[in-house]
């Protein structure tokens, strides 16, 4: 059921917030450090573990997958609560960390794209479309199916 997915999310959130607070204390920061991210990773790991052990029914699987897909909106909502002005006034290390993390994500995306082994596209496939877009060639008219009753 979806309720079990929500219960699993709640459990992962509690554990994630606890670990985020603990990490904040260990780092000497008076804040939760990555609790939501930890919770979402725990949710994904729990879903995989439950699937491998055949303990995840179809309805529960749908509920868990729904909440796992909500990862990015939840993180954006949590980040919106942060005090960005106070963070930036803390010094240039914040800006260096932000730019560095964005560059690292771009590099990781490019690397994963190259590793993925996507087959190279022929230029012959793209040329007709490019000519139509540029207006050099008239677009072909759509083919209308004929019906047997039209005879």
TrEMBL record:
The keyword Hydrolase does not apply. Coiled coil: none annotated. Pfam families: MadL. InterPro entries: Maln_transptMadL (IPR004690). The keyword Chaperone does not apply. The chain crosses the membrane at residues 29-50, 62-81, 93-112. GO terms for cellular component: membrane. Keywords: Membrane, Transmembrane, Transmembrane helix. This is Malonate transporter MadL subunit.
């Amino acid at each position: 059921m979806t309720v079990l997915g929500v219960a699993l999310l709640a459990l992962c959130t509690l554990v994630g917030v606890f670990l985020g607070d603990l990490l904040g204390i260990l780092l000497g920061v008076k804040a939760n450090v990555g609790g939501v991210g930890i919770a979402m990773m725990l949710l994904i790991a729990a879903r995989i573990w439950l699937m491998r052990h055949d303990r995840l029914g179809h309805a529960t699987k749908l509920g868990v997958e729904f909440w796992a897909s909500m990862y990015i909106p939840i993180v954006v909502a949590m980040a919106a609560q942060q005090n960005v002005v106070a963070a930036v006034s803390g010094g240039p290390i914040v800006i260096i960390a932000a730019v560095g993390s964005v560059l690292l994500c771009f590099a990781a995306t490019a690397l994963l794209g190259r590793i993925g082994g996507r087959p190279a596209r022929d230029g012959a496939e793209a040329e007709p479309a490019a000519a139509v877009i540029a207006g050099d060639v008239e677009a072909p008219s759509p083919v209308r199916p004929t019906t047997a009753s039209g005879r």
